[in-house]
Amino acid sequence: MKYFPLRNSDIQISRIALGTWVFGGTHWGGSKQTDCIKAVHAAIDLGINLIDTAPIYGAGISETIIGKAIQNKRSKVILANKCGLLGKGKNITNNLTAKSIFTEIEGSLQRLKTDYIDIYQCHWPDPNTPLKETMTALAELKKQGKIRYIGVSNFNNELLEEAEQYAEITTLQNHYSILDREIETNALPYCRKHNINVLCYGPLAGGILSGKYTEPPTLEGSDARNFFYKYYKGEKFEQVTKLLEKLREFKRPLNQIAINWLLAQSGVSSVLVGARNAEQVKQNVEATTWTLSDNEIKIIKQNTIC
Ligand SMILES: NC(=O)c1ccc[n+]([C@@H]2O[C@H](COP(=O)([O-])OP(=O)(O)OC[C@H]3O[C@@H](n4cnc5c(N)ncnc54)[C@H](OP(=O)(O)O)[C@@H]3O)[C@@H](O)[C@H]2O)c1
């Protein structure tokens, strides 16, 4: 495993992190708790120290599973957690008020069976709460020792700049993959300039970039691959299939090509890869054993569909 220094800290975060949205089960066609626990243990054994979760993932299920998995291993893990999305199913609201954050963190600490969270991130912006209130609340949690660093997610440059007026922002977590490259024109250059660590999510676009689908999968209506990652049917599916055919010429596992392409991008600190079992974790961590050539990186850019 390779590591990257976390801003203004003595912490090194692993360049591949474990994403655990899938642990929540909902939105991912279910998940098995025992497999998820094994995935966490495999990740730690393979040198992953950064684990990302959120209370919204399965309404606390993901956090609860991680809490079980990291008992007696807490010191080996940098826990990245989130706040600001409340509710269940289709009834989800944004709430980054101080009152809500102070309540939310207590539930998260309990489920994770820990007394601190390393990186506490605003999950999505809350247009109804002044950022000053949110950041002041997070700075207070930092002072109390309940969190160590403040992060934001899905923030644009304007919001980042405003947030930085009130607290030190250590990380930005945004969407970034071969198929989703909007970050390159805005947040990524900003973070490079301001020394903010970028954690990218959705590196496999929900799994499709692993190349495992020869035809569009059948998914429940509420599946993340229907409403969040939109490459699983129709023309988009065909376009991704064509791109993957080109990438197969590299003679490397496609999941690793997708991860390595992100690792090669300047400004990316860590790639959050979701995995539902130990085998997927192993296959993804293998990406750190080789790198793409400059020419391969160029070919990916030339064949992009976004
Ligand atoms: N801040 C935000 O708003 C936000 C949004 C999204 C995600 N995230 C975070 O980022 C993490 C990563 O994103 P993600 O999980 O949504 O998407 P992802 O990493 O692109 O895809 C993960 C999914 O791909 C499949 N997969 C993983 N490894 C594989 C392998 N080696 N071979 C074949 N299939 C494989 C698994 O699903 P199947 O087994 O079902 O195919 C897995 O759940 C999340 O878990 C979460 O922690 C944050």
Average predicted local confidence, pLDDT = 96
Instruction: Count every beta strand, where a strand is a DSSP E run of 2 or more residues.
Output: 12
CATH topology: TIM Barrel
Model regions low in confidence, pLDDT < 50 over at least 5 residues: none
List the helices and strands and how they pair.
Layout lengths: L2 E3 L6 E3 L1 E4 L13 H13 L4 E3 L8 H9 L8 E6 L1 E4 L2 E4 L3 H15 L4 E6 L8 H14 L2 E7 L3 H10 L2 E7 L11 H8 L2 E5 L22 H4 L6 H15 L5 H10 L4 E7 L3 H8 L8 H9 L4
Helix pairs in contact: 1-2, 1-10, 2-3, 3-4, 4-5
The structure holds NADP nicotinamide-adenine-dinucleotide phosphate.
The site of NADP nicotinamide-adenine-dinucleotide phosphate (NAP) has 28 residues, from strand 12 and helix 10.
Characterise this structure.
The chain has 306 residues and is of the alpha/beta class. It is 38% helix and 19% strand. The chain has a single domain, classed as NADP-dependent oxidoreductase domain (TIM Barrel). It has an eight-stranded parallel beta barrel, surrounded by six helices. NADP nicotinamide-adenine-dinucleotide phosphate (NAP) is lined by residues 19-22, 28, 52, 123, 153-154, 173, 201-207, 210, 212, 255, 272-276, 280, 283-284.
Question: Features of this protein?
Answer:
alpha/beta; two-stranded antiparallel sheet; binds NADP nicotinamide-adenine-dinucleotide phosphate; TIM Barrel; 306 residues
Short description:
It contains eleven helices and twelve strands. It is α/β, with parallel strands linked by helices and 306 residues long. The chain has a single domain, classed as TIM Barrel, CATH 3.20.20.100.
